[in-house]
Specification:
By secondary structure, the chain is α+β, with helices and mostly antiparallel strands. The protein is built from six helices and seven strands; from the N terminus they run H-E-H-E-H-H-H-E-E-E-E-H-E. Strands 1, 2, 3, 4, 5, 6 and 7 form a seven-stranded mixed beta sheet that branches. The N and C termini lie far apart (40 Å).
């Protein structure tokens, strides 16, 4: 009986998903979970601020001030400290999405009210979605392909994860 137990345990361990311990983990929100279903159905994640192209993010990766200034200007906002802070945060989120997240990293996406979470692996670089029919459910053009691995309910999550989810930005490094 003990021999059979050991074989069963070894089989379970062998079939568990294996992740590189150096893998980074990210939380990516889709407008408060509004785009959650579209992300899952069409195997992608996306980030807003379409007025800034992926190429502009690449050109200004070391200077988020340029992106921030364009966001303020394009949106007709006053150049005050509140808008500078808000648009500066948006610029940093785009830079993280495009340059810090890499293929092989693991993404966690919450549904509306963070009731459910989907987990996926990044399988591609940032691309710009040009097809209008693919922008109907989610209008964000800056996207990344995702291979979904699984889902879980908020109430089955580690309590530490729940704290991170409520404090997180659009794109947050949750590797810890």
């Amino acid at each position: 009986a003990e021999f059979m137990e050991n074989i069963i345990q070894e089989s379970i361990i062998r079939n568990l998903p294996q992740f590189d311990p150096n893998t980074k983990y990210w939380l990516v929100r889709g407008e408060g979970g509004i785009f959650y279903d579209d992300f899952l159905i069409n195997n992608y994640i996306a980030i807003g601020w379409n007025e800034i192209s992926a190429e502009e993010v690449d050109q200004n990766v070391w200077n988020s001030d340029t992106i921030r200034a364009k966001l303020i200007s394009e949106n007709g906002l006053a150049f005050n400290s509140k808008n500078k802070r808000k648009m500066g945060s948006a610029a940093k989120q785009m830079i993280k999405f495009q340059n810090d997240i890499r293929p092989g990293h693991i993404i966690l996406v919450p549904s509306q009210n963070s009731e459910r979470f989907s987990v996926g692996e990044v399988v591609g670089e940032v691309y710009s979605e040009e097809k209008e029919e693919k922008l109907l459910a989610c209008p964000y053009v800056k996207r990344r392909k995702i291979k979904w691995i699984g889902k879980f309910n908020r109430f089955k999550a580690d309590p530490l994860l729940q704290k991170v989810v409520y404090a997180a930005h659009t794109v947050s490094d949750i590797t810890q």
